[in-house]
Amino acid sequence: MQQNTETHQLDDIIQLFNQCFYAEFNTKLVKGGDEPIYLPANDDVPYHAIYFARGFYSSALHEIAHWLVAGKERRKLEDFGYWYEPDGRSEQRQRDFEQAEVKPQALEWILSTAANFRYFASSDNLNGEVGDTMPFKLAVYEQVKSYAEKGLPKRAETLRKSLCAFYGTEDKIDVAKFDVSRI
Q1: Is residue 2 part of a domain?
Q2: What phi, psi does 28 have (nearest 5°)?
Q3: InterPro entries, per this entry (predicted)?
Q4: FRET label pair with 7: which of 13, 76, 153, 164, CA 20 to 30 Å apart?
Q5: For residue range 38-67, what is the model confidence (pLDDT) as tens digits?
Q6: pTM here?
Q7: Closest CA to 158 of 57, 56, 23
Q8: Is residue 149 part of a domain?
Q9: How many helices (DSSP H) and strands (DSSP E) are in the chain?
Q10: Residue 112: enclosing H or E segment and its boundaries?
Q11: How far apart are CA 44 and CA 31, in angstroms?
């Protein structure tokens, strides 16, 4: 997988996302600051905004994946109404965090593969007790396999197909391309 700034331009992922979803869902992908956040439309901003962190392509894919998992009611709430405990979580709180991250990270991995971009599982707990991450990685992999077998939700499939077309990758989820030992 590539991670080439020439190949993976932020303007491209922003444009692809916005082309796929702005008209129907009034949602835009926006380059953000230090921390990612999802903000529903309000009196000041007439559209829902997914702000990804520090201009990182991987952050854009990760935040998009959270939006793809969120249902209609959650998309009305700031950060989809999810709890977030910052860096420094205990090992038990880390396991809770990972459980909530399985589906979004499986989608992120699928989207990354469609974009020919390297995916790394994220524990997002640099100053805390990460513990053994292999069970989490295996859960993400199992979710990828489930999506490959049962199909993606409609919005996720729309973006996956768009990424495949743009980056010239194979338009299917080939489980053989997903290696848990490399994430």
Answers
A1: no
A2: -125, 145
A3: EpmC
A4: 153
A5: 999 999 999 999 999 988 999 999 999 999
A6: 0.91
A7: 23
A8: yes
A9: 5, 3
A10: helix 91-114
A11: 18
Tokens of 106: 């499986």
- Residue 17 belongs to some domain of the structure: yes
What total of structural domains would you count in the chain? 1
Provide the token pair at 53: 């962190």
- Residue 178 phi/psi, 5-degree rounding, is -110, 110
Express the helix, strand and coil content of the chain in percent, nearest 5 each. Answer: 55, 10, 35
pLDDT tens for 64-116 read: 999 999 999 999 999 999 876 666 777 777 778 888 899 999 999 999 999 99
Q: Does residue 3 sit within a domain? A: no
| 29 SS3 class | strand
User: Residues 10, 53: contact at Cβ < 8 Å?
Assistant: no
Distances in Å between the Cα of 168 and the Cα atoms of 115, 164, 171 are 8, 5, 9
Residue type, 99: Q
147 close to 172: Cβ distance less than 8 angstroms: no
CB 162 within 8 A of CB 19: yes
DSSP 2: B
